[in-house]
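During the reporting period, our protein records have gained a structure token line. A sample record is set out beneath this paragraph:
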Amino acid sequence: MIESPLLEKLTGYIGGRWTDSAQGNTFDVYNPATGEVIAKVPSMPAEDIEAAIAAGKSALKLTNPYSIETRRKWLEDIRDGLKDNREEIGRILCMEHGKPWKEAQGEVDYAAGFFDYCAKHIQALDAHTIPEKPKDCTWTVHYRPIGVAGLITPWNFPIGMIAKKLSAALAAGCPSVIKPASETPLTMIALFSLMDKLDLPDGMVNLVMGKASVIGKVLCESPDVPMLSFTGSTEVGRKLIVDTADQVKKLALELGGNAPYIVFEDADLDAAADNLIANKFRGGGQTCVCANRIFVHEKVADAFGEKLAERVNKMTVGDGMNEGVDIGPLVNKQGFDKVKRHLDDALQKGASLVAGKQPGELGDGLFFPPTVVLGVNRDMCCYQEETFGPLVPMALFRTEEEVIEAGNDTEFGLASYVFTADAERAQRVAAGLRFGHVGWNTGTGPTPEAPFGGMKASGIGREGGLEGLFEFVEPQTVPRGF
């Protein structure tokens, strides 16, 4: 079992108190590197979810709202707590997710950045009076908290994803009911251990854990939860849209991806290869923004493949707590089997293995070696589906128009990447790609300072930047007559 000063309580958190009324109903948390059970946490009943919503409702202040200064202090305190505990939170994250400890600590820094950004820009949520005086009135615009928000996060970024949501919710003055993924609840418990020591109002943050079907049903049906923010699959996102339609809840959804990574013939191939390694293998390839379809111009495909293979063959796979490990295990067998199915399907349909070893050669467990295949086409699973693992499928292209069409050949529109030395071409291709994020000569993903979100079936709304800061407020216009 895992031991940590941040995990002294392995329970839910409702109304400012650690709560366990699950009556012995628990679920196991595994270390994917070893297969060992490292914790048991409560699977909370519907009554607990309802209690968490009630606690949030009691913390909501409308007629006497929390001041900008108070909310800023909340954000700064959480930011500082994350920074002060980055190593230990990173260790917990590594143990339950599998990503290397150093990478996990980087995710803690990333999370702290969202609280820092919201603290520095929270003044944007203050009321303002418009300069015009139409209809002989003075018009003031207020940004009111939307109310209790349900925040549902995935397992691939256990601290980063909640930071995006919670920072904006607290900036707006919105209480929240938070559900982490069942694979990675311990990082969230660690965060709540930090917040329990802060001067947050009782009920401002509430933690519930357990079955998604139980928790989701209560959050969707409760009239006291006017907003849900969810990161996860498009399939679940569509269900949330249907399940909340009657109440016309506000939804912020970051859903699936199928990112194209386009390398033109004039690109700096070394830079493109280095960026692809950093982009694709972060979190073992289990990220919604990592390259899923790599399109390489036919003139440089062989050279790029060689550079990529050289880098991939130097990577180390193993337990993320060990020094020098580049890629940890996949989070569960379902994910492992999907990556293997994609690889087998590609090879059976004519793709060739450029780098990597067949799974199993590194021993038992969930370790999947970084693998590169060439000759991918749209009939293959790895082209049509989001792989979510360390498989790099490369396809060839000839023209700009062809690759724009191929890049858009998916229902998803989250992240994409373009490598070219031609600035005019880069602008044309970026404008043509229907993705909310287009990296030009970089494989970097989102940052707290800029809005991030999807087009098409990849979601609704934005996180990060001023756009993300405004997600949890409702503008209210107050004209005053003379």
